Amino acid sequence: MAQFQHQDIIEITHGASLLRFAPQAGGRLLSWHIDGQPVIYWPEVADWSHPAKIRGGNPLLFPFLGRHRVALQPPPTFDPGTPEATAQGYFQAISDGDEELAESYMTDELVDACSGQWYFYDIRESPSVVITDSEIDGDTAKLGITIDVSYGGGPFDGASYDQDETLTMEHRVDVWLISKPTWPMDRYACGSDF
Fold first, then answer.
1. 73 inside domain
2. Which residues, listed in sequence order, are joined to residue 13 by a DSSP beta bridge?
3. CB 113 within 8 A of CB 191
4. Domain count, the chain
5. Could you tell me the CA-to-CA distances from 182 to 139, 155, 165, 187 in Å, in that order?
6. 17 belongs to a structural domain
7. pLDDT number for residue 29
8. Is residue 156 domain-shared with residue 99, that is, in the same domain?
9. 170 neighbors 177 (Cβ within 8 angstroms)
10. Contacts of 116 (CB under 8 A, 6+ apart)
11. 3-state secondary structure of 168
């Protein structure tokens, strides 16, 4: 790695251009020279402990137009027979566009009332689902969840939104089943019983 003012930097040369970057200073562009003439310069004496306060150089801005999340670990695997495992299976089926499988995680009453009331057109990419709260009271469970849905393609036609939901479940025999309409169903079309 190249050195500049006793700092590790990256130098990129293309034709008559020379660019110097300092990755440890936030990806700052230190200098840009064309034919040896400075276009962007860096002062001869600089306080590298506070690079943002230095007059010179230019911070590089990366065009992130929406929220971007980085998963640092794979999704958890929940014990079968838990409300969390039911939620995970349900949202995986939604992500896969498998209405029949998604309905297998629901009570028969909910399936009868809400069958065909899906908004799969709203999902272009796999939703990110985070369980924020879990409460079990006898044969009823409530899971707080946050759903992050991104859709669209290129840099200017994409969008995303977050939605907070509560999954209400009932324990039936050996399995937890979703008992109230939830995303991405049209809850208003499912009837007033829910």
1. no
2. 18
3. yes
4. 2
5. 19, 30, 7, 7
6. yes
7. 82
8. yes
9. yes
10. none
11. strand
Averages of pLDDT over runs of 10 residues in the chain (194 residues) are 86 88 80 86 82 71 49 74 93 83 91 71 63 93 85 60 87 92 71 62
Residues 168 and 89 in one domain: yes
C-alpha dist (Å) from residue 74 to 70, 71, 94, 148: 11, 7, 19, 17
Q: Does one domain contain both 28 and 91?
A: no
Phi and psi based region of residue 30 (left: phi greater than 0; alpha: psi -120 to 50; beta: remaining):
alpha
- For 156, the domain range is 83-190
Q: List, in order, residues 6 or more apart from 146 with CB less than 8 Å away.
A: 129, 130, 132, 162, 163, 164, 165
> What pTM, to 2 d.p., does this model score?
0.58
Residue 68 burial (CB count, 10 A): 9
d(CA 190, CA 114): 5
Same domain, 26 and 117: no
First to last CA, the chain: 63
